[in-house]
Model the fold of this input.
Amino acid sequence: MPNTYACIYVHLIFVVRHRKSLINQTWEDELHKYITGIITNRGNKLFAIGGMPDHIHLFLDLNPVSSLSDLARDIKSSFTKWINKKNYNASKFQWQNGFAAFSYAKSQLPVIAHYIEQQKEHHRKKPFDKEYRQFLDKFGVNYNEKYILKSPL
Done:
């Protein structure tokens, strides 16, 4: 769209259903490349991707013609089909419903990108469920506790 200019930096978090540890390190790099392709092919720019076996973080510049909800749905849906087709897990892979999204200023880009790329180190010190609630509180997001981070089965 001519004469449309934007810089919309978004941090997305997706959680595996029931917080099961289904994202395996043996194919995690392949997962990251696959998700990068989805984001790039939809006209967005990915700055960082990282996570743990039960969740993933993405930091991107959202194309102004993109819908954040549509992009999140497409990433989750495409990845779910891909991972289940590959049969990497004994059980069926599913994401938890919904997602978290937070916006940042350009000046915060290096800090947020580093945080996302260092997820494994970071979560040795702080549990994900505590951190997730801290994000929601920091950004003033109202939430219902019954919908937050379903426990592992």
